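step=predict obj=Alpha/beta hydrolase fold-3 domain-containing protein n=342
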Amino acid sequence: MSHEALNPIHPQVLPHLDPVFVQLYNEHAASTPAGPIDLAVLRKKYSVLYSYGTGPAPDCARVYDTEVLGHNGDAVPVRVYEPASEGPWPVHVDFHGGGWGLGDLDTESHICKHICMKANVCVIDVDYRLVPEFAFPIGIQDSFAALQYIHAEGAKKFNIDSNRISIGGVSAGGNIALVCAHLARDAKIPLRLVAVGTPTVDDISKYKTASETPWQSMHEMEHAPTLNWARLKWFDNLKWQSIAPAGPERDSQLAALKWYANILDAPDFTNLSKTVIYTAACDPLRDEGEAYAQKLISGGNEVIQKRFAGVPHPFMHMDKDLWQAKEFIELTAEHIKFTLGK
């Protein structure tokens, strides 16, 4: 199946897109030949995939790589961004995007730098393990274990105030942050804020076609640039291929899935942290992200939800040209600074 997301913009979607994005995309991406994707090649290119639209980021006082404990006590790499002020600092923990099978510590480095300097917080970016080499939900398992480690050991290891923690991420990383909010509540980790962009929410393995989904955005944006239905299904298949085909190992892995495949099925939506959810109007995932926000509101939680007009799924990586991306970064940093500064 050919599902490369870098194609000429589909006429069904074109009228909905900001002309600034259309020009940027046409100049840099639309002429890329369509074809099957090689996972190894895509991993090498992923963190620079949208660099044609990424603006300069401020220099933090210090940036360094180290490790924390992930799932089952295994070492997980992290990158730490420190502001120029004197610690102990509040801390924002970031989980990068990449459809569970892509992404690394370079993927959201520009966003991490902006948050560090604009919000005056230490940012710790978690390089959780990927599918299909490791079974889903390894990204969630590693990330929550990392959050637990940062809360327990961060004051000593990172010079942070472990009572002033926020978490966030984009796409699959947004999903991880939303799940970790439930797990943190149950583990009595005092999260102040969850701030996510264009999160994945639903289990699309249930649907054969975009038209079968309950989400209008999937129907309208089936052929959206940068992330389309075919690519979503490719990522989803990669995720499920990570599960063993049979036997006790499969049983154990399926048991670990809990409600993570569709986070709308979480058993308890009460007493969750303040949550900010940003969606993109031209993203197939738009409506499920907004449905999740509504479920949080129904649970009695404080929620801020905003839809950015005219842009596709990974718009926040294009802050050189898109006002929507600049505003996404500014607002995210403002919410973190305000909430953790109390």
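step=describe
The two ends are 51 Å apart (CA to CA).
step=end
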